[in-house]
């Protein structure tokens, strides 16, 4: 129990620090979201003082408040679920924009990451178990795929399977000519899956090799341990040695890495989403940066940070159950 209490206290302090930095950093950057909005409005005519005051209050840029008062107000807004108003999509709240884009990133990239992890771990365990045979020749090809950038793989897939052979669509998350928006129908789900094949394949091909190589090396190291030799000397079945002794221990570092990878799913593969014009958080982040939308950037960074911390905390809990030595030594 002490282990879990220590981890919970550590992550509580980390969350406070992350939120405080998320409040501070945008205010140290040059420019102001209210000034940007007022400059756009000034092109159409003079802006009344009352309107200027309203815009500054709406975008959290009230110059009459001290930094401490702004910090307290920021925490109050967070506790109410208010992340501000987007400048590029004015007057849409940031929470609505993130809520609309988040399911796309989680659905596509989350599933692709899980598939990549499962395939990589299974293949790496098998290759490590049969080390020194012909299966080791798979390693160079998988390593080559891992070294390729996401966007380059995406461009190759678009060229090969959407331009030269128009089997899959080039852009979008669904058929915008058939559907006005997301619908709870089988036709819409089929359209989403059809449009998500190439983006998902990009993630799987680019990350599969890393899991495979890491698991293979851990299997080779684990198979040289004394407890594996003891299990073989006791005459245990090879399948039991493989699953119960080798894979279980070799997969521990990969489980921790998987938690981090799954947490970063919310960011989306930013450039990959831009290539496919996929409506996820990655594309939304590019929109925020291009439009100097500080409120939207701040909201996205906060969601990313909290998701990474939550996933890491969850992996610490799981790790404590899987490997009791963590609780005893922690």
Quick structural overview:
The chain has 330 residues and is mainly α.
Provide key terms for this protein.
MetI-like fold, transmembrane, transmembrane helix, 15 helices, ABC transporter permease, mainly alpha, globular, 2 domains, 330 residues
Order of helices and strands: HHHHHHHHHHHHHHH
CATH superfamily of the largest domain: MetI-like
Count all strands and give the number: 0
**Class derived from helix and strand content:** mainly alpha
**Number of continuous helical runs:** 15
Write down the Rg.
25 Å
What profile does the largest beta sheet have?
A: none
Query: Would you identify the CATH architecture of the largest domain?
Result: Orthogonal Bundle
Helix % is over 70%
CATH class of the largest domain: Mainly Alpha
GO cellular component, one term: plasma membrane
Main location: membrane
Family: Belongs to the binding-protein-dependent transport system permease family.
Pfam families: BPD_transp_1 (PF00528)
């Amino acid at each position: 129990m002490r282990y879990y209490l220590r981890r919970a206290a550590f992550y509580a302090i980390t969350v406070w620090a992350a939120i405080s930095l998320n409040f501070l950093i945008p205010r140290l950057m040059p420019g102001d979201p209210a000034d940007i909005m007022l400059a756009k409005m000034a092109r159409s005519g003079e802006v009344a003082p009352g309107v200027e005051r309203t815009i500054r209050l709406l975008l959290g840029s009230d110059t009459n408040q001290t930094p401490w008062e702004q910090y307290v107000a920021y925490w109050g807004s967070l506790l109410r679920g208010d992340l501000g108003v987007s400048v590029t999509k004015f007057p849409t709240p940031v929470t609505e924009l993130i809520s609309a884009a988040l399911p796309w990133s989680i659905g596509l990239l989350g599933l692709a990451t899980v598939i990549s992890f499962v395939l990589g771990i299974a293949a790496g365990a098998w290759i490590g178990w049969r080390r020194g045979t012909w299966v080791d020749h798979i390693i160079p090809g998988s390593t080559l795929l891992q070294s390729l950038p996401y966007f380059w793989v995406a461009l190759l897939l678009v060229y090969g399977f959407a331009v030269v052979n128009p089997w899959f669509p080039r852009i979008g998350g669904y058929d915008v000519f058939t559907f006005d928006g997301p619908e709870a129908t089988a036709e819409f789900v089929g359209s989403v899956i059809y449009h998500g094949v190439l983006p998902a394949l990009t993630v799987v091909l680019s990350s599969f090799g890393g899991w495979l190589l890491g698991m293979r090396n851990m299997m080779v190291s684990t198979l040289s341990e004394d407890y594996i030799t003891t299990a073989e000397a006791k005459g245990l079945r090879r399948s039991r040695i493989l699953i119960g002794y080798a894979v279980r221990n070799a997969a521990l570092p990969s489980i921790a890495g998987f938690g981090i990878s799954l947490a970063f799913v919310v960011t989306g593969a930013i450039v990959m989403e831009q290539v496919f014009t996929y409506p996820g958080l990655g594309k939304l982040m590019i929109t925020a940066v291009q439009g100097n939308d500080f409120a939207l950037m701040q909201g996205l960074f906060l969601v990313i940070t909290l998701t990474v911390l939550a996933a890491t905390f969850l992996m610490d809990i799981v790790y404590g159950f899987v490997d009791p030595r963590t609780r005893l030594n922690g």
